[in-house]
Amino acid sequence: MLPSLAPHPFPDLPAPLEEAWAPAPRDVAATFAFALSRRPVDDARPVLVAATAAWLNEHGRPYGPGLGDVRLLLTRVRREVDALWAMEQALRSGAVALTVGAIHGAALPQTRRLEFAARQGGATALLLPRDLDGLSAAARRWRITAESGAADPDDPRAPGATRLCAELVRARNGRPGRWTLEQDDETHRLRLADRLADRGQAPIAGTGAPSGLAA
Amino acid sequence: MLHALNPAARALGLSRGQGQADARAMVPHLLAQPADPAADARALTSLAEWAERWSPSVSLDLSPDGLEGLFLDVTGAAHLFGGETALLEGMRARLAEAGAPCRLALAPTPGAAWALARYGEGQTPIATEETLRGLLADLPVEALRVDDRTLNAARRFGLRRVGDLHVMPRAGLARRFREVDGVGLVRRLDQALGFVAEALTPLRPAPKYRAWEAWAEPLGDVAGVEARLPGLADRLAAALERDGRGATALTLTGFRTDGGTTRLSVRMGRPGRDVKIWLRLFREAGPGRLDLGFGLDALMLTADAAEPLAARQAVMAGEAEARQGEDLADLVDRLSARLGEDGVLTPAPVDSWIPERAERLVPALGRRPQTASADFGRRPVLLFDPPEPVEAIAELPDHAPARFTWRRVTRRVIRADGPERLSPEWWRPRSDGRRDRTRDYYRVEDEAGARYWMFREGQYGPDWTGPGDPRPAPSWWMHGVLP
Question: Which of residues 386-425 of B touch A (CB under 8 A)?
Answer without folding.
Answer: 414-417
